[in-house]
Amino acid sequence: MNKRTQITLFALTVITILLVVSIVVSASPNGDFNALYRIAGTPVTLITNGFRKAATGISDWFSYVTSYNSVKAELEELREKNAEIPVLEDEKERLILETNELRRMLDFDDYSSDYNLLPAQIVAEDVTDWFNTFTVDRGVNDGVKRGATVIAPEGLVGIVTEEGLGSSKILTIVDEDNAFMCRVSRTNELVRVRGVSNEKMVYELRVDRLSSTTSVQVGDNIVTAESGGVFPQGVMVGTVKSVSIDRESGITTALVEPAVDLTLLSKVFIMIDR
Questions:
Q1: What whole-number distance in Å separates Cα of residue 120 and Cα of residue 135?
Q2: What is d(CA 118, CA 274) in angstroms, rounded to the nearest whole number?
Q3: SS3 string of 179-203?
């Protein structure tokens, strides 16, 4: 046994003896050992108090560490919640927009009672045709069929020309290959509307079959007719923005501004036959 170990054992023995003496004296404060207690009790008390203060300090330190860790965890949780605020704001804005769209969709009740309105997101646009066609994320698996009418809250968008399992291709009403029958809301007159698109990125519709008795005026609303069976009747198409008469042929034509701004379109609704 080395010298350091011997010293340590000796010190512990002395402390143990002093503690035993302290206990005995405390039990009999009026006994013969009372004088000895007065002499030895003071350092023992100091040692005991020292151990007590040390223990209290250690306890306080552990409490501080525990409290610090708790506060740190709470701060971290607050940081995570604060980071979620912009996401929640974006989600709130999205829900508001969707709610407004659905409210506007209530205007379609008159002519969509026989259809389910399937929301679809535009995922691709065909820039070679000046955005006359685009692809949506709905297809056969969602009940989409070729020839289905495509609308937006503002009015008519186009028709499904190709359908895949999970996507479909839409031909918009401004395409030159798209001609369909409509009516003038004010007079209920039947007219034919054809798409007009050009390199200037101007999207228009032309009313090209106007009789001499047809009284189309600027500001008239054009809606789909029941004739032809291409689109359901009553869907808003656009508003007449100009009327002109060819001097040589005497033919009257009118240009119609589409109700839907195709350049800003991101979501549409496909009318699925019930």
A1: 10
A2: 11
A3: EEEEEECCCCCEEEEEEEECCCCCE
CATH architecture of 114-274: Beta Barrel (2.40)
CA–CA distance, 256 with 182 (Å, rounded to integer): 12
Ranges 66-75, 98-107, 129-138, most confident: 129-138
pTM: 0.60
Q: Where does the pLDDT of residue 245 fall: very low under 50, low under 70, confident under 90, or very high at 90 and above? A: confident
171-225 confidence digits (pLDDT tens): 999 988 888 999 999 988 888 999 886 656 677 899 976 776 778 889 999 999 8
Give CA 45 to chain center in angstroms.
70
Separation between Cα atoms, residue 221 and residue 15, nearest integer Å: 106
- To which residue do tokens 């496909």 refer? 270
| Whether the Cβ atoms of residue 274 and residue 116 lie closer than 8 Å to each other | yes
d(CA 93, CA 87): 10
Rounded to an integer, what distance in angstroms lies between the CA atom of residue 184 and that of residue 186? Answer: 6
Q: Which residues contact 93 (CB under 8 A, 6 or more apart)?
A: none
User: Where are the domains positioned within the chain?
Assistant: 3-62, 114-274
